[in-house]
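tokens incoming
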């Protein structure tokens, strides 16, 4: 755990209620241990969050040995989103996290342009900040390619479901369920962990359940709408998951025999828009910053 006595600064934010503790650490000085992440994310002992976003220069993370190399499309001076799940595990990408990260960089003056690249373990992710103030931003993330990895099965919510394994930098199983209504989706019990075949999913997977996308009249440039819930690897059910929304949109379009389209998705935490093209996917949605603060020294010591 961190030995420095300087107070640990943080911010708190969320993207469609997928919430994060943001730790500014430009030179990657912080020893971001599993214990530190889990106590920060604990909703009783810490600040409470689905994950942690460390804000560091990519080159500093390489120098500190946190990253072995710079991922594709990431330059040493790029701001890198060092993402950790609430259980302390490392994930390759976080779509909602990138929106919140970009908002944080913009409001704190780390970045002075509206278009820049955020580093992630899955590679560089170009962002466009359409609008922002201290509290709210509207951000599009170029999420890169969407790769289908074949069919998969899962036991979840007392049901056996099949879906598409989808790689969006991190692994997903997106289950588009025939006949499922938004009300039926809302009634599912997602408190228990999904049963996944460990040989089929050696890295585990985030599991999405969604309704079959329905066509719209093209209003707001959206071709289809669907409702989605997600059980995240390393977290549990969250109110939104950006990479999961991209995986779900791509699987939903595929179910309709389409490789491209714009899907408006509703999740328990809000709504986003996903554009799937042959070249890659784009995720557009809100970011909210809710606090900037300082942790009290010793906060991470065993608390009872
Ligand atoms: N909430 C994220 C995804 C975070 C990582 C995920 N739990 C994993 O382990 O892959 C998002 O918005 O994409």
């Amino acid at each position: 755990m961190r030995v420095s006595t300087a107070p640990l600064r943080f911010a708190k934010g969320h993207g469609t209620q997928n919430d994060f503790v943001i730790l500014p650490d430009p030179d990657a000085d912080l020893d971001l241990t599993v214990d530190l992440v889990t106590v920060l994310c604990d909703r009783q002992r810490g600040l409470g969050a689905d994950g942690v976003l460390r804000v560091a220069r990519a080159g500093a993370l390489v120098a500190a040995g946190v990253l072995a190399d710079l991922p594709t499309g990431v330059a040493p001076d790029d701001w890198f989103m060092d993402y950790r799940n609430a259980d302390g595990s490392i994930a390759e990408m976080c779509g909602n996290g990138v929106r919140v990260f970009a908002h944080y960089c913009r409001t704190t003056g780390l970045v002075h342009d509206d278009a820049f690249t955020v580093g992630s373990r899955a590679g560089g992710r170009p962002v466009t900040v359409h609008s922002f103030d201290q509290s709210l931003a509207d951000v599009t993330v170029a999420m890169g390619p969407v790769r289908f990895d074949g069919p998969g099965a899962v036991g979840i919510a007392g049901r056996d479901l099949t879906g598409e394994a989808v790689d969006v930098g991190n692994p997903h199983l997106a289950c588009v369920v025939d006949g499922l209504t938004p009300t039926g989706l809302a009634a599912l019990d997602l408190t228990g962990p999904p049963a996944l075949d460990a040989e089929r999913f050696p890295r585990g997977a985030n599991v999405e359940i969604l309704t079959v996308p329905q066509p719209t009249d093209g209003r707001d440039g959206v071709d289809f709408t669907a409702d989605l819930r997600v059980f995240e690897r390393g977290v549990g059910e969250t109110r939104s998951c950006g990479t999961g929304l991209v995986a779900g949109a791509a699987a939903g379009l595929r179910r309709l025999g389409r490789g491209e389209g714009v899907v408006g998705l509703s999740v328990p935490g809000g709504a986003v828009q996903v554009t799937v093209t042959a070249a890659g996917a784009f995720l557009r949605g809100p970011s909210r910053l809710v606090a900037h603060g300082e942790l009290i020294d010793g906060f991470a010591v065993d608390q009872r």
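note: The longest strand covers residues 280-295.
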